[in-house]
Structure formats: structure tokens, C-alpha cells
């Protein structure tokens, strides 16, 4: 082998060796990179909330203070940069208290007072520290307690981003891009914009309220909107695709239908006609200047906005940098499965009340006013309702809820359950001065009446009547019958009316609220009356005795009462 060939061979071997080493190194680097990527993903899956919190540009928590919610421990990253816009979102039951903070010079909002989205555009006093100091003062008034559940969200941006809530509660974000692109290029450029995880699109305006808001908030100059009457050569509409051809000759401009080409309204026709007067489809909004559209030059097929400081619409050619086109308007909203994410923003749950309810076990009637145990708390704070147990007249507490816990983002109702107390009666009939010629009854009969007055002569209403069968005894020492009656909720007087057997007369009664052997010498005449509000247990002895010495057995009453 010649020396030249030997050198070539050695050089080739060296090249192969170096190439092999390089390939192995590259594989190792790739493997290492894949491993690192996998480890990063695994770490993120382990604790995404923690990672998100660490990287959040804004952080705070919400505290309930009387009839307001306030922000605590609010911080903004010191190195965030100049802040151009701040957006605050809140549940519908809250209103931002405009008196709770001093609005710095250069902060402007175009949202209606009472809106659940308030957006500020900042031209001065917009350093992270000044914005933090301002937002720390925020307070939210409670307008409807039942609608306070949800989150308070604060977003900051280095761009002029405005925010508006439509009648359905969906939030829309808008920005103006000062770049004089023709409409076909502006369409694709808008589609590349991202905000809070949402894909941008040339703005669509579907109501006079939205029209006014965009004009007042971000309309810095004339620019393109998402409306057109241009269609593809095959006759199909441009329909929210990610990008389109910028070549005008690829489109048909002869159609009459003005429609939205992107966003959630893609394909919806809002006006028919190349020129006024045209026709407006029912329930569709358009905001043309009174003399527009006019299809000047025969190729004005694209929607333009805010020309000459006027908010109304104009039709325009697919032109770039002209006095009539200085940029385009981009909108962001949730549609097509997209969900807004936290991006340079933070959302904190609104802590909810804990209330105590006192309830009848049987019919669920509320027995006392419900109680809000506190109006000063944060999520996670502990509560204890032991001191809220309540004694309710004529009721017994039979159900106690878990009385210790922590405030949450859901309302908590703790129910103390009660059942009505019973009126317990011990009643017997005692026969005095028995006669060998007269049957001695072994049972007595009476009616228990729930009435409206303690004085028997002034009773006007009877609410309940219960027939009682009583044991009939011959002496006070003998046992009485026992009865329990659920106390009436509104009337607490009870009478006992004795039914007398034939040839017997009522000799009076002895009534006590303590257990004792009754003494006939203490008897009273009249109708015994018990007050269930004062006592829950009574002992009653009813006395009878024969009223004659001459008897006629087998009378109808004897037959009926079984005393023959």
C-alpha cells in the first residue's frame, strides 16, 4: 500500500471514529434532554398549583369584612415592567366600591359602574409598585349575597388590553395593533395573537353596547374589523381558519352578504348589499356610517372602523398603509372549546358565610331566625358554633350538626334539629261514696280540648279534641292513666271535660304539677285547665259520686256504656 493510500485510510478511520463519537454524543445529549424534559413534566404534574403560584405576576387573598370583601396580602412582581392595563373580574353579586381607593392620574375605565368586569387603561402611575399600592385598597360591596360565590380575578398586562362582559356573562378582551396591514394579512396576523390562552381574531361587533365600548376604550386610530363580503373562489366563506391567502385574486368580491369571517360569530351575515340601503337580517347588528357601505371603486369588500375619529363603520378595499387604515382590532374570547387561563393574573375564591338554622324535625319549619355566625373571615379560618345552640320553648334539641370546621368557597348551613315537647298527663277518675245498688264504673271517659283561653267562660275557639279513656278508681292512692300529647304550636291551654255516667255527678278535681297523692279535701269545682307553656307535666284526679238513691237499671245509657 502506498504512503498516500495509507494516509487516506488513516484519515477515513479518524473521520469514522469522530463521526461515531459525535453521533453517540448527540444521542446522549438527546437522551439527557428528553430525561430533563420528562423530569420537568413530572415535577409540574406533581404540584401544578404551587408552580403556577410561584410564577404568578399577581397574588392576593380575599377577606370578608362586614358587608364588603377586601384584598389581603396583594403583591405584584417588582420586575414586571410598565403596566398598561389592569382587569378586575368579580362575581355578579359584588360591585367594586369606587370610594374605597383613590384612582391615580392616568387610570381610565370605560366599563359601566356595577359591571362585574372593570378594566383600567394606564398611561401614568403604572409602575408595579404604584399599581400594587392602588389595588391593595380595593373593596367590593355586597349587592346580592346569594350571588357572591365565585372568584375575584386581577390581570395585568404590558399591552393596552380592554375587557367587556356581554349580556350572557362572557368576557371579551380587545387590543388595537398599530400595523397598517391589508385586511387579508391582518386576518392571519390577528389569528397569531394570544392572550390568557385565547386565540385572537379580527374583532366582531354584535351590539351597540360592544361597539361603544371598543370605540371608547381601545380605538386609537382607524383599523380593520372582522367583517367582509369576500368569499373563496369556490364560493365558500372564510370561516375562522388559522390563516388565509393574502392574494386578493384568490377571492370573489361580487357577493352581497357581509358576514363575520372569524371568532364565535364566523359565518353570520350581518348586512346584505354592496351599497346602502341594503337589508339587515333580523336580530343582527350593524354600525355603518349613514352613507356606508358604498363600494367605492367597486372593490370595497372589507370592514373598517373608527375612520376620522368617528366610531361608525366603513367599507374599504384590501389596502395597507393609507390614511384609512392604520392598524387592526383583535378580540379574544372563550369559544370553540377554548378556556381562559391565568396569565399575568391571579384568581382567589370569595369566602362564603356559615349560617345556623333552627328547624323542626317533622315539618322542617324554621323555629327561630337563622344566624350568620360571623362576617369577618378568610377561607381556611376556623369556626365553632357551639355557643349558637339554642333552647326553644316547648322543643327538645335532638340533632346537633358538626359544630367545628373551616370557612370555604361554598356557603355552609348548619342545622340544629328539634322536636316538639310533649304535654304529659296522669289522669284518673275516683268514685266517692259508692252505693251497693249502683254499678261502680271501671272506666271513665273524658275529652281533652286545646283552647284559646285559660278561663273556661271565655273560650272562643277549640283547636284540637282528643277522647280519653281513664282508669276509674276508688281511692286517691291508686294508679292513674298516663297520656302524652304533642304540644300545640300556637295555643297552650288544655281543658279536661269529664263524661259522667248515668246516676253520677261531678264532685270536682285536684290538679297539681308535681307528683303527689291527691287529697279529696283539696278538690275544686269547675273545669280543670292546664297551661303547657308553664309546665310540661300534670297530675289530675277527677271525682264523681252517685247523685241518687233510686235507680232504674237497663236504661239506654247503661246499655251504651256497658254498665248493665
TrEMBL record:
InterPro entries: C-type_lectin-like/link_sf, CTDL_fold, MucBP_dom
One Pfam entry name: MucBP
Keywords on record: Repeat
All copies of domain MucBP, residue ranges: 354-419
Coiled coil: none
Domain of life: Bacteria
UniProt name for this protein: MucBP domain-containing protein
Amino acid at each position: 500500500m502506498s504512503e498516500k493510500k495509507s494516509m487516506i485510510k488513516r484519515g477515513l478511520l479518524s473521520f469514522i471514529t469522530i463521526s461515531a463519537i459525535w453521533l453517540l454524543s448527540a444521542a446522549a445529549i438527546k437522551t439527557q434532554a428528553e430525561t430533563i424534559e420528562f423530569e420537568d413534566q413530572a415535577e409540574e404534574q406533581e404540584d401544578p398549583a404551587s408552580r403556577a403560584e410561584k410564577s404568578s405576576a399577581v397574588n392576593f387573598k380575599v377577606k370578608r369584612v362586614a358587608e364588603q370583601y377586601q384584598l389581603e396580602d396583594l403583591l405584584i412582581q417588582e420586575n414586571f415592567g410598565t403596566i398598561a392595563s389592569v382587569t378586575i373580574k368579580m362575581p355578579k353579586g359584588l360591585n367594586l366600591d369606587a370610594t374605597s381607593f383613590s384612582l391615580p392620574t392616568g387610570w381610565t375605565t370605560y366599563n359601566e359602574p356595577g359591571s362585574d368586569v372593570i378594566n383600567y387603561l394606564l398611561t401614568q402611575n403604572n409602575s408595579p409598585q404604584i399599581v400594587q399600592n392602588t389595588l391593595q385598597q380595593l373593596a367590593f360591596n355586597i349587592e346580592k349575597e346569594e350571588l357572591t360565590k365565585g372568584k375575584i380575578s386581577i390581570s395585568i398586562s404590558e399591552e393596552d388590553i380592554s375587557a367587556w362582559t356581554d349580556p350572557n356573562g362572557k368576557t371579551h378582551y380587545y387590543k388595537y395593533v398599530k400595523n397598517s396591514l391589508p385586511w387579508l394579512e391582518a386576518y392571519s396576523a390577528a389569528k397569531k395573537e394570544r392572550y390568557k390562552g385565547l386565540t385572537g381574531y379580527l374583532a366582531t361587533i354584535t351590539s351597540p353596547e360592544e361597539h361603544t365600548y371598543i370605540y371608547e376604550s381601545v380605538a386609537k386610530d382607524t383599523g380593520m374589523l372582522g367583517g367582509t363580503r369576500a368569499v373563496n373562489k369556490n364560493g365558500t366563506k372564510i370561516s375562522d381558519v388559522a390563516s388565509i391567502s393574502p392574494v386578493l385574486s384568490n377571492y370573489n368580491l361580487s357577493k352581497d352578504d357581509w358576514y363575520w369571517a372569524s371568532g364565535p360569530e364566523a359565518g353570520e351575515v350581518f348586512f346584505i348589499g354592496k351599497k346602502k340601503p341594503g337589508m339587515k337580517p333580523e336580530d343582527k347588528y350593524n354600525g355603518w356610517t349613514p352613507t356606508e357601505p358604498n363600494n367605492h371603486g367597486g372593490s370595497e369588500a372589507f370592514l373598517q372602523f373608527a375612520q376620522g375619529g368617528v366610531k361608525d363603520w366603513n367599507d374599504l378595499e384590501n389596502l395597507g398603509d393609507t390614511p384609512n387604515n392604520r392598524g387592526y382590532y383583535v378580540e379574544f374570547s372563550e369559544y370553540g372549546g377554548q378556556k381562559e387561563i391565568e396569565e399575568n393574573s391571579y384568581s382567589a375564591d370569595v369566602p362564603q358565610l356559615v349560617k345556623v338554622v333552627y328547624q323542626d324535625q317533622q315539618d322542617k319549619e324554621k323555629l327561630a331566625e337563622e344566624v350568620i355566625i360571623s362576617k369577618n373571615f378568610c377561607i381556611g379560618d376556623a369556626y365553632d358554633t357551639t355557643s349558637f345552640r339554642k333552647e326553644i320553648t316547648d322543643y327538645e334539641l335532638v340533632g346537633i350538626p358538626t359544630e367545628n370546621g373551616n370557612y370555604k368557597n361554598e356557603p355552609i348551613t348548619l342545622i340544629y334539629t328539634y322536636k316538639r315537647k310533649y304535654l304529659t298527663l296522669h289522669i284518673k277518675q275516683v268514685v266517692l261514696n259508692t252505693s251497693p245498688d249502683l254499678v261502680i264504673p271501671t272506666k271513665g271517659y273524658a275529652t281533652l280540648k286545646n283552647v284559646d283561653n285559660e278561663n273556661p267562660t271565655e273560650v272562643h275557639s277549640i283547636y284540637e279534641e282528643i277522647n280519653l279513656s281513664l282508669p276509674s278508681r276508688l281511692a286517691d292512692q291508686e294508679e292513674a292513666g298516663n297520656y302524652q300529647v304533642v304540644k300545640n304550636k300556637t295555643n297552650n291551654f288544655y281543658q279536661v271535660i269529664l263524661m259522667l255516667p248515668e246516676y253520677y255527678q261531678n264532685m270536682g278535681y285536684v290538679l297539681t304539677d308535681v307528683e303527689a297523692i291527691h287529697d279529696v279535701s283539696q278538690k275544686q269545682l269547675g273545669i280543670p285547665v292546664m297551661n303547657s307553656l308553664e309546665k310540661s307535666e300534670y297530675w289530675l284526679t277527677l271525682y264523681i259520686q252517685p247523685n241518687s238513691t233510686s235507680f232504674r237499671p237497663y236504661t239506654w245509657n247503661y246499655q251504651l256504656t256497658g254498665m248493665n
